[in-house]
Design brief:
The protein has two domains: 243 residues, Aminopeptidase, CATH 3.40.630; 155 residues, 2-Layer Sandwich (Alpha-Beta Plaits), CATH 3.30.70. It is 34% helix and 23% strand. Strands 1, 2, 3, 6, 7, 8, 13 and 14 form an eight-stranded mixed sheet that branches. Strands 10-11-9-12 form a four-stranded antiparallel sheet, covered by helices on one side. Strands 4-5-15 form a three-stranded antiparallel sheet. The two termini are 23 Å apart.
């Protein structure tokens, strides 16, 4: 394993085929999570836990492994001190495979140097790499400077209680992590705006996530041959259009400003003033983000997406009710209640109601002027020399937000170079991880563990 030679700490050499076989074995286990317990195969999660114990015996021999709740696995690797414990996170659960795959989504097949399967990127590759790195270090007699916790959830994809249960367990025992690392940003080969080189983006904050139900229940029904001027289906469609026609105003969050300032010395001279002084450049940046759309727009706006619409039972029957679901990603400064007020304000039909179904507010912001972030940055640069490392704001949500109860040193980074195509395959068809990427991920975690 070429990428590991420079950090070998003993006579042991990691065997590539063993790593790939372990990855394939994980992908063959259908750890699909669901909000409906009847749809969950608990036996598959039990198989996954058994696989970890079988394939990584030294971690379980020298560590203290616990099952937390129905799905959680927490392994404490004792260090020389308990003063500054660290937590490395991943989740074993995956979303349903869906259709259209060119390979068995739970077959772990290998093609063109890639291993295919649901969860290959999100996040069984991370879980595997953490375990391989811990096994490697412990087999070579390494003892962490501080306690190290390996935290593996099983309900991340459904925002279930698993990780909260792990956090509550640690909280009751007075564990206050000095460093927490979960999935998040990655290495972007195409770089960032103004930066045309390999860029490693580390999440220091997450936007909030909330779901709203927008509904009408005052339809009279009847035959479609004698319709009213506007059916409830038409009225809910109009409400959807009103939401989309009244976007939230653009602004730069604290974490986005941190990103711009960090990149100020990496961009061309003509762009440097905008990056170094994001407060002054905020109006121009927000205007540009609205035009560019996509990820750039999401960076500077609270976004609202109409994701589901339901009404009617037959083509020739007037619907008696209609509803839609709106998924909102909240920028720093917005709350689930302020968004509720906004949605109610832009919908002009008094018969359309809006209610909050569930949601979380934006997280706090983790510091970058501390040993925790600087250590992470140094390990990234040693694994990928020449990369540009920057903090950033995550548009999606992770289990890491639950650790805010214990610490503000929470970082979100997936140590892997991910192309646009790979990023698009997460939760999509033909999700796969390259063998080379697995090697570098393990190298990253070995280096990191030896610094914690």
């Amino acid at each position: 394993m070429e990428c590991l030679k420079s950090i070998k700490t003993g006579k042991m050499k990691l065997r590539k085929e063993r790593v790939y076989d372990n990855m394939r074995a994980m992908l063959r286990i259908k750890t699909v999570s669901s909000a409906n317990a009847e749809d969950v195969c608990f036996a598959e999660f039990a198989r996954f836990r058994a696989l970890l114990k079988e394939r990584f015996p030294v971690v379980f021999e020298k560590g203290e492994a616990l099952r937390i709740g129905e799905f959680g696995v927490l392994i404490r690797i004792p260090g020389e001190s308990r003063e500054k414990p660290s937590v490395l996170m991943a989740h074993m659960d995956v979303v349903p495979a869906g259709d259209g795959w060119s390979a068995d989504p739970f077959g772990g097949s290998v093609r063109g140097g890639r291993i295919y399967g649901r969860g290959a990127l999100d996040t069984k590759c991370t879980l595997l790499s953490i375990m391989e790195a811990a096994e490697y270090c412990l087999m070579n007699g390494y003892v962490p400077k501080n306690d190290l916790y390996l935290s593996f959830g099983g309900q991340e994809e459904i925002s279930g209680p698993c990780c909260r249960e792990i956090v509550d367990y640690l909280d009751k025992r007075g564990v206050r992590p000095d460093f927490v690392l979960d999935e998040g940003g990655s290495l972007i080969p195409e770089g960032l705006p103004g930066v045309r080189s390999l860029s490693a983006v580390v999440g220091v904050a997450e936007k909030g996530t909330a779901d709203y139900r927008v509904y009408i229940e005052d339809g009279s029904g009847g035959h479609a041959s004698v319709p009213p001027r506007s059916t409830v289906a038409g009225r809910i469609a109009r409400a959807a259009r009103e939401i989309e026609s009244h976007p939230f105003p653009g602004r730069l969050s604290t974490s986005v400003k941190m990103m711009f300032r960090e990149l100020g010395d990496k961009v061309p001279p003509y762009m440097a003033p905008f990056f170094r002084h994001p407060d002054l450049a905020s109006p121009a940046i927000c205007a540009a983000s609205s035009l560019l759309g996509g990820t750039f727009r999401a960076m500077a706006h609270t976004t609202a997406a109409v994701t589901m619409i339901k009404s009617g039972t037959a083509c020739n029957v007037l619907p008696e009710s209609a509803e839609m679901m709106v998924n909102v990603r909240l920028l720093e400064g917005d709350t689930t209640m302020s968004v509720l007020t906004h949605l109610r304000g832009v919908i002009t039909d008094p018969g359309v109601k809006v209610e909050l179904v569930s949601g979380t507010n934006p997280t706090g912001i983790s510091p970058i002027d501390c040993d925790a972030f600087l250590t992470l940055k140094d390990v990234i640069l040693k694994t990928w020399p020449g990369a540009v490392v920057s903090p950033y704001q995550m548009n999606g949500g992770t289990d890491a937000r639950f650790f805010e109860k214990l610490t503000d040193h929470i970082y979100r980074f997936t140590p892997m170079i991910m192309t646009k195509e790979e990023r698009a395959s997460v939760h999509g068809r033909d999700e796969s991880v390259s063998k080379e990427a697995l090697c570098h991920m393990i190298a990253f975690y070995i280096r990191l563990i030896m610094r914690l």
